[in-house]
Amino acid sequence: xxxxxxxxxxxxxxxxxxxxxxxxxxxxxxxxxxxxxxxxxxxxxxxxxxxxxxxxxxxxxxxxxxxxxxxxxxxxxxxxxxxxxxxxxxxxxxxxxxxxxxxxxxxxxxxxxxxxxxxxxxxxxxxxxxxxxxxxxxxxxxxxxxxxxxxxxxxxxxxxxxxxxxxxxxxxxxxxxxxxxxxxxxxxxxxxxxxxxxxxxxxxxxxxxxxxxxxxxxxxxxxxxxxxxxxxxxx
Length: 235
Description:
The chain is mainly beta and 235 residues long. It has two domains: 9-82; 83-235, no CATH class. It has helices at residues 197-204, 226-229; strands spanning 12-18, 24-31, 34-41, 47-54, 57-65, 71-78, 81-82, 84-89, 95-102, 105-112, 131-139, 142-150, 157-164, 167-168, 170-174, 187-190, 193-195. It has a 17-stranded antiparallel β-sheet that branches. The longest helix is centred in the last third of the chain and has 8 residues, at 197-204.
């Protein structure tokens, strides 16, 4: 499948910034005085990121590229809202994951090329497996539900946050490289407002939109999302 961004070929290019070697770094594109897209390049001149705009919002496919020039990810947008099937590929062109957000509702999955935690405390994922980096849940174009940042081993997470209509709503946790809770966590939020644990527990007992507090969730191990599991051990 061939992907292209919604930037008209006759759009006027405006260089916003350049690398130290003089190569263009970021450009904006205009048609009839309106912004219609952006592109970014590496210092060596390779295109690394591009997307179209309409009425100030992302429109069509947002494309990201490996430094080999191969396509890394195609992310679908409609009027600034994720809408459609997103895909991500390895450096050598193999599909490593795809996900669907239907008109702003679904689960977005982002993989990383890195395997293993930077400090080495976590085990590596199986050789050849895609490595999950971010799991993000959307409802009606807004972050709603859980968002997890994965540690690079398909087993542990480094951060877990809950949202409702883009605002903090639930329990937020963050772990050190040793797997212990960072200072000041867990944190408790209701509709964007930070509360004490006791106040949160009282509200959560009668509010089904709030995730319950479970001591076992203070450990950084989580099951992989079902939308991702199908891609393990297939490369």
